[in-house]
Design goal:
two-stranded antiparallel sheet, 2 strands, about 5% strand, elongated, G-protein coupled receptor, receptor, transmembrane helix, transducer, G-protein coupled receptors family 1 profile domain-containing protein
Length: about 100
């Protein structure tokens, strides 16, 4: 059976079979990265929740104006950014 050849923007030709193999290879690399990312994010989230609860128990009067929605959103974004950076370094180191 004859396969169609594809030409990309650089002028290189390759078959659909090769393109599918390349996608599978990239997907195999993406799954461990996402696993590491979610694992790091969950650990960091539990850590931040623990600190917030500690602060709310030890300083209840200050916690009402210190623990705000804006600070929570900032913490979430920081957690995910840190998780991606940690996962990226693990992914590069282990690859």
């Amino acid at each position: 059976m004859h396969e169609r050849m594809h030409t990309n923007s650089k002028g290189c030709t390759r078959t659909r079979k090769h393109a599918r193999k390349l996608k599978r290879t990239n997907a195999r690399k993406l799954v461990p990265f996402l696993e590491y990312c979610v694992c790091h994010a969950s650990v960091l989230t539990i850590l931040v929740i623990s600190f917030e609860r500690y602060y709310a128990i030890c300083r209840p009067l200050r916690a009402s104006y210190t623990c705000t929605k804006m600070r929570a959103c900032t913490c979430i974004l920081t957690i995910w950014a840190a998780a991606v950076m940690l996962s990226w370094s693990d992914h590069i180191y282990l690859s």
